Structures are given as structure tokens and as C-alpha cells.
Amino acid sequence: AAAAGRMLANPTGPRIAALETGGWDTHAGQAERIAPVLASLDTGIAALRRELGPAWRHTAVLCITEFGRTARVNGNLGTDHGTGGAAFLAGGAVTGGRVLADWPGLGQGKLFENRDLQPTRDLRALAKGLLRDHLRLPESAVAAAFPGSEAVAPERGLIRPVA
User: Fold this and answer.
1) 66 pLDDT band (50/70/90 cuts)?
2) Quick one: how far is CA 45 from the chain centroid?
3) Residues 6+ apart with CB under 8 A from 86
4) DSSP characters for 55-82?
5) In whole angstroms, what is the distance from residue 126 CA to residue 60 CA?
6) DSSP state, residue 106
7) Is the pLDDT of residue 162 over 90?
8) What is d(CA 4, CA 16) in angstroms, rounded to the nearest whole number?
């Protein structure tokens, strides 16, 4: 993350970086295993911000998972692959301080297939909104990045207006 921050801070450097962190697949012993993974994510974002310096104010960071987790703990005190997940945005370019969610709850009849958090948002909408409003890609390029997702509208209002 620090190396990415240094490259992105360079005015002639790249505009986009993709980073992956492991350790999230907590099928067993989740309570003990998740804290160091969350700390690593926190440390990575802090390093990215530090190395970006003033460029942070023009930055949007999208953190997403490749799959959700089940709502209930399994027999190994972990959770298995599920449907609903989470994403978050950070960065100086982001209109923050809010939660975008349609929280379905965890009560009786609220779980997807009686095991997973009910998916209520399409993560492609976040990515499309960033491509359009932050990177200023034309609609045709955004559509090409997500073929077959014409029904998923880009999320609006994610990025602060440029002064």
C-alpha cells in the first residue's frame, strides 16, 4: 500500500492501483483470526494515505470483498462463504460521513436462503459510479467494463464536486 501510494502520488505515475489482502477466509476460529486481518487493512490504508500526501484529497479507495459470509457461526467457530457482503469507500475525494444501505436485518425470515445476509445493493453500482464520476470515463467505457449489467445504474453522489 505504501509503494502504491508513492507511485500514485507521482504526477506522471499511474491513476489506479489494485491491491489484494488475504486472510479473510475465516472458516474456523474467526474471532481470533479476524482482528489481525482488519488491522492489516487499517495499516495499509493509513500507509496509502501517508504516501499519497496532498494527493489524498483527490483519491477514492474502494474496498470490496469477493464474497460474503454466512450470518451464523459454523461448528468450527467461523463463517462460511455467503451471499451478502460489504464495501466501503475512503479518500479525500469521497462524499463520506454516511452509510448507504438497505439493511434487511437478521431476524426470522430476513436471511437469504435462511443462512446469508440478504443482498440489497449491487457492488457494480459503486464501481460504475466511481468510474464515471471520479475517473470521468464516458458511459460507453463504464458499460464496457461491466458487460451485461445495463440494469445496474451507477451510484450517484459518491464523489465530492471538484472546486
Assistant:
1) confident
2) 12
3) 65, 68
4) GGGG--EEEE-SSEEBSS--TTSS--EE
5) 11
6) S
7) no
8) 9
